[in-house]
Design brief:
Number of helices: 29
Largest sheet: 4 strands, antiparallel
Oligomer: single chain
Distance between the termini: 119 Å
């Protein structure tokens, strides 16, 4: 029986829907060896025809789009496109025949270069979004790091296929040298194992394709088939599906199950798959599906790091940085972070920048922070782009540069960062170096608000209430502020309390006003405590309670809230709820009066400036001093206090 594989390639092209859409068709004939049966022959024939088709797609797409930037800032090569196309295209078998000696197969893939690139972008975007989620969770020490790494898994799968094919060719050559039955039997066992790799990889890549198109039932079925057949990458991805749970539009395809996730991660890790090392390490770190065990977590992160997997290097660095499962060692932490960063792992680059930026773990070094932030930002990490924008906007460690701040915010916003969209809105609303542009500010706030970012929703509400950048509309203003308040944004909760208290754009409702003030106060908003104190003082929405009014005012005043300082000062001045004391009143008014600046000053501060002027004039709680009295009167007048302005005008006449 011939050991030679015969390839007959015929390409037919047709143009569908657009001038660059093509249909690729290949025929392949495989001559079986004495070890082959129908299953192994089909697997080898199918693998070869698929490889030819994908290679042709990669060549054609690369020719049509010479240089294509991906979502993460990199570039696609022909080999990248060929590899990733396996997970975003579907192969259709048109005809196949087996006569016991020869397996014939004819297959096609229909592809449009633009659609291929768009699908690959979506594939990478899944991972990019997961990495951003990990970053947020990392700040809370709750990262899961369970991204399926679909693009990496496809690349790893391709390598396994190539290695299997090389081994199959080696075994065929070895067969010609072996004469004993036992030697042939051993070769046959190894041969079948390698064909199994090809079969499993086919199931796996088809599973990725279905996963990308959200056909999760088929994806699970194929991953499970491959995993049960020993495919270590499929085992890891199956673990990921159980770890995260798979839902779409409230439909549950796979319920979250940490124990099953751990089972499949462990199966994969035991076969040496590096991504599973990291995932298994994370399961031990946080006790997902297994008893929490920091040292075992370090063991698996270290195995990944020793294989030069950047995510493993990064998380091993985190363990040394935090002293989890190992003795805390900042030098080793930086070593592993730098190893990951040098492999262009943007998360590690961001983390190094963050460490040097904050100076909490290492000595603050803005130059190094900027260096690593830029490396990460240029790799497309939009969290880092936002951080860079903030550094340039505030002038932290760099010369303040609004243009650079705008540049980095815009790059992040173009990648879908709702935080960057919000920052752009603030720049257009508040920039000091150029004319304010409320219309453009509203545009960016709205984009951010549409991503459910509650600070932006609050801003949209305020702009409707004030008629900034949009036609004044109280009803819309209340709608957006209530939306933000319901999301738990404390600033919006306080504002909602004010709207309900005074009946602005909504029916006056003291009880609901008290509710929102309480919600904001529980989150530490000082002005809300002050507002709540006045509700108790006046008996609005609650039973009148001067003791609570004094207590809440004192809490906020002691923490520096100007309104509370003014209100408590007024209580001492009038002797309401407390024993009258001009000295204590004057001290509180003085604290409130000295707060704020010309551009941003609370009404409590302005009112305190005016009453402090009268107290110096009368010598109440302070020595009588006409010069100080007049000075405070001028300050109050300059800040818009009507009575102060009138008094100064009367003095001039």
């Amino acid at each position: 029986m011939s050991e030679k594989i015969l390839v007959f390639i015929v390409l037919f092209s047709s143009f569908v829907s657009s001038v660059i859409a093509k249909t690729y068709i290949r025929e392949y004939t495989y001559e079986a060896t004495e070890f082959d049966n129908k299953t192994t022959s089909r697997a080898l024939a199918l693998q070869e025809v698929k490889r030819d088709l994908l290679n042709e797609i990669g060549t054609y797409v690369s020719a049509k789009v010479e240089v294509t930037r991906s979502n993460n800032g990199g570039y696609y090569s022909s080999d990248d496109i060929t590899t990733l196309s396996a997970g975003v295209t579907k192969l259709e078998v048109l005809d196949e025949k087996w006569n016991g000696k020869v397996y014939y197969i004819k297959a096609q893939i229909m592809a449009d270069p633009a659609d291929i690139l768009k699908s690959i972008d979506k594939l990478l975007e899944l991972e990019k979004k997961q990495k951003q989620i990990e970053k947020v969770e990392d700040d809370l020490l709750q990262e899961k790091t369970t991204t399926a790494d679909l693009s990496k898994s496809l690349i790893d799968s391709k390598k396994e296929v190539e290695n299997a094919l090389i081994e199959i060719m080696r075994l065929k050559k070895e067969l010609s040298k072996q004469q004993t039955r036992e030697a042939k039997r051993l070769i046959e066992v190894a041969y079948v194992e390698q064909v199994d790799v090809l079969i499993s990889n086919q199931w796996f890549t088809d599973g990725v394709s279905y996963f990308k198109t959200k056909d999760y039932e088929k994806a699970y079925y194929l991953f499970k088939k491959a995993a049960d057949n020993g495919h270590r990458i499929a085992q890891n991805n199956l673990g990921y599906m159980y770890h995260e749970g798979v839902t779409d539009k409230d439909k549950v395809f796979i319920a979250q199950d940490y124990k099953k996730a751990f089972y499949w991660y462990e199966k994969s890790a035991m076969q040496g798959y590096v991504v599973a090392f990291v995932n298994l390490g994370t399961m031990y770190r946080f006790g997902f599906g297994v008893n929490q065990h920091a040292r075992k977590s370090v063991h698996w992160y270290k195995r990944a790091a020793e294989d030069k997997y950047p995510k493993g290097e990064y998380f091993l660095g985190i363990m040394y940085e935090n002293g989890e499962g190992v003795e805390r060692n900042i030098k080793l932490a930086l070593y592993w972070h730098n190893r990951a960063a040098d492999q262009e792992y943007s998360y590690a680059q961001w983390h190094l920048g963050h460490l040097y930026d904050k100076g909490e773990v290492v000595e603050q070094d803005y130059e190094r922070a900027i260096y690593w932030y830029k490396k990460s930002a240029n790799n497309g990490d939009y969290f880092t782009q936002v951080d860079l924008g903030e550094l340039y906007e505030n002038g932290d460690g760099v010369v303040q540069n609004y243009d650079q701040a705008f540049h980095w915010y815009k790059k992040a916003a173009d990648s879908g960062s709702y935080i960057a969209e919000y920052r752009l809105g603030k720049m257009y609303e508040n920039r000091k170096d150029v004319a304010k542009n409320y219309e453009t500010a509203f545009y960016w706030y709205k984009k951010s608000a549409d991503h459910n970012w509650s600070p932006a929703q609050n801003k949209i509400g305020l702009m409707y209430l004030e008629g900034k950048g949009v036609t004044q509309d109280n009803a819309n203003g209340v709608y957006w502020i209530r939306l933000s308040a319901n999301e738990g944004y404390s600033v919006a909760q306080n504002k909602m309390g004010q709207l309900l208290q005074f009946g602005t754009g909504v029916k006056k409702d003291y009880k609901e006003s008290v509710y929102w003030y309480q919600q904001a106060a529980e989150q530490g908003v000082l002005v809300s405590k002050s507002n709540l104190a006045m509700m108790y003082f006046n008996g609005f929405g609650v039973d009148k309670d001067l003791n609570k009014a004094v207590l809440l005012s004192a809490e906020a005043a002691n923490k520096g809230d100007a309104s509370a300082q003014y209100n408590l000062g007024a209580m001492y001045h009038q002797g309401v709820g407390v024993e009258q004391s001009y000295i204590k009143a004057a001290a509180l008014f003085q604290k409130a009066a000295e707060q704020g600046d010309e551009e941003e000053i609370e009404q409590g501060s302005i009112a305190s400036q005016y009453i402090l002027a009268t107290m110096f004039s009368l010598g109440q709680g302070v020595p009588k001093d006409d010069e100080k009295s007049f000075a405070w009167l001028q300050i109050a007048a300059s800040n818009g206090h009507k009575e102060a302005k009138q008094m100064i005008n009367n003095m001039k006449q």
